[in-house]
Specification:
The complex is a heterodimer of chains A (484) and B (65).
Chain A lengths: L17 H38 L12 H33 L6 H23 L13 H23 L8 H25 L6 H35 L6 H14 L15 H13 L1 H15 L10 H23 L2 H7 L3 H31 L6 H33 L6 H7 L1 H30 L9 H5 L8
Helix pairs in contact in A: 1-2, 1-3, 1-12, 1-15, 2-3, 2-4, 2-5, 2-6, 2-12, 3-4, 4-5, 5-6, 5-7, 6-10, 6-12, 7-9, 9-10, 10-12, 10-13, 12-13, 13-15
Chain B lengths: L1 H27 L6 H5 L21 H4 L1
Classes of the chains: A mainly alpha (484), B mainly alpha (65).
């Protein structure tokens, strides 16, 4: 049972029901979610274009905005700041409202924030496409637009802190801790990295160190906490069972808070940095074994006895896939940070596969799962087609497997041969072509999944799936017998 | 430039202090106790333990066709 506590602001009021909380989120969240899905689809098209150019470099090169050097950062910024961040902010706000048992505050400001975020992103993407990008990975968007993003972060932060101040539940659930990590730490990191790099305070090696300290923390202190908060809330909610070990969940959060933000310099192994600075990054990466193993064990043990529900729940499929990917990508990442491993995989396609295992297989799948859960609750409508949800899942999961497997193998072989001075570079490059074609096929499959998902979201907003059962809890009780 | 350096150091220090302060607050306010009830804090009479809350849609286009 929840431990409700009296609120100083509203001593007489009962906490709102979940339905009331969900309704209060509707306007702002739909702006963020619809935008996120739009950027997912457009970002996928740019991804395919970038992938094709890797094996067919002559394609669409006569117009500068469609050359590889611009298409690739446009893809990254669309997916990170468009899809991932906007779906992440929507999920974060919804989770916080539910965890605090309070209505979403500042709805109009948040709607305006969503619109401004989109405008800043469009402006940033146009700048990159016209050749005005900063060429600093993950912060290619020029400083002015970064400051506009920061102003929206301020609104999200204000809404988040207001919910915490008004909370009606005494206990701060583990998801809430992760969300604090995201909403209170990341905006400062973003602002600091932009300031340090774009104002000339750091140059050369120090700029690179700042760059990768920041870029890794986009995963570590932004996407990862939101993804894990989502998993920690939705697995228990969907299966109707509390998490296996609350001790482990808190150990996982605090050890992540302690270790993750040290890890970034492992991206610069072999670079002209002081050895100790790189070693700090490697130690931080290996210490990540602690939170990763605790989270992995906890999620798995919570699911034990409930795996058959994967058949019945769309959310659970995506969320469990995401949780397993978190363990895999994190362990892979820690091992990759070892100098002996890194000297092979660095500057190869292996790293690209690893990045997609993190941002796509872990984070994006968590967001898909969250959106399948929360959109019917926001709109009061049902998804239009169970078959299409399954198609989306298998296209995304299959596409990811097809992406990660071949690129990991191909990248590793590429690295081994690049370390052998007897093998001509051109021969190595030619031999990577089949793996790169595989990537294009995989990306196309994932994009198919995204188009299906976008279609499902559009039909939901149009009401094609019909109304959600009035008593959904009752409707879900015979969950094992649902016929498709 | 000195001012910007100062701001950077102050923000980074605040970053570290906020983490320590949050941990101290959590311990002092009983957030590290009664783990069994803490794990159940997301459940209540409306959505109790033992009741699943998600399933594939059974209505929609497929039923109509």
């Amino acid at each position: 049972m929840s431990e409700l506590m009296p609120s100083a602001a509203e001593p007489q009021n009962e906490p709102p029901t979940r339905a009331e909380i969900d309704r209060s989120c509707r306007g702002p969240l739909l702006v963020f979610i619809a935008s996120a899905v739009f950027w997912l689809v457009i970002g996928s098209l740019w991804a395919i274009l970038a992938a094709v150019k890797m094996h067919t470099p002559g394609l669409l090169t006569s117009w500068e905005p469609l050359t590889f050097g611009r298409v690739r950062p446009v893809h990254l910024n669309m997916t990170i700041y468009g899809w991932a961040s906007m779906s992440g902010i929507a999920t974060l706000l919804w989770l916080q409202a539910r965890l605090a048992r309070t209505r979403l505050p500042l709805p109009n400001l948040l709607i305006a924030g969503g619109v401004v975020w989109n405008l800043a992103l469009v402006a940033g993407l146009v700048e990159i496409s016209l050749g005005h990008g900063t060429s600093v990975e993950w912060i290619e968007i020029p400083l002015f637009w970064a400051l506009v993003f920061a102003s929206v972060f301020a609104v999200v932060m204000a809404s988040s802190l207001t919910m915490f101040a008004r909370r009606k539940v005494a206990h701060v659930y583990v998801s809430q801790w992760y969300l604090f990590g995201a909403v209170l730490w990341f905006p400062f990191l973003y602002l600091m990295a932009n300031t340090l790099i774009h104002t000339g305070l750091t140059r050369g090696v120090t700029a690179a160190a700042t760059n990768w300290w920041f870029a890794h923390n986009v995963l570590g202190l932004w996407l990862t906490p939101i993804g894990l908060a989502t998993i920690y809330y939705l697995i228990p909610k969907v299966i109707g069972a509390p998490i296996h070990s609350y001790h482990l969940s808190l150990l996982g959060f605090w050890s992540l808070a302690l270790f993750y933000n040290w890890a970034g310099t492992h991206h610069l192994i072999g670079g002209p940095l002081p050895a100790w600075l790189v070693t700090v990054g490697i130690v931080g990466s290996l210490m990540m074994f602690v939170p990763v193993i605790t989270v992995g064990i906890n999620h798995h043990m919570t699911m034990v006895g409930h795996f058959r529900r994967l058949k019945d729940s769309p959310t659970l499929r995506f969320i469990v896939f995401s949780g397993m990917s978190y363990t895999a990508v994190s362990l892979q990442g820690s091992l990759t940070s070892l100098r002996s491993v890194n000297e092979v995989n660095h500057f190869t396609h292996y790293t690209i596969a690893h990045a997609h295992l993190g941002v796509y297989s872990f984070f994006s799948m968590a967001m898909f799962g969250a959106l399948y859960y929360l959109l019917p609750r926001l709109t009061g409508r049902e998804w239009a087609s169970a078959r299409l949800i399954k198609l989306h899942f298998w296209a995304s999961a299959g596409g990811l497997a097809l992406y990660w497997g071949p690129l990991t193998i191909g990248g590793w072989l590429q690295g081994l041969r690049m370390n052998n001075p007897d093998v001509p570079f051109l021969e190595i490059m030619t031999d990577t072509l089949p793996w790169l074609w595989g990537r294009t096929a995989a990306g196309t499959l994932m994009t198919l999944g995204h188009v299906v998902f976008a279609w499902l979201v559009v039909t939901m907003l149009r009401g094609s799936g019909g109304a959600r059962p009035a008593s959904f809890a009752a409707a879900t009780s015979p969950i094992g017998e649902v016929k498709q | 430039m000195t001012l910007v350096y100062g701001i950077v150091w102050i923000v980074m220090a605040a970053f570290a202090v906020s983490a320590v302060a949050a941990l101290v607050w959590a311990i002092q306010h009983g957030q590290m106790e009664r783990f069994a009830s803490a794990a159940r804090s997301i459940f209540d009479e409306e959505e109790p333990v033992g009741r699943p809350t998600d399933a594939f849609p059974t209505s929609g286009l497929e039923r109509r066709s």
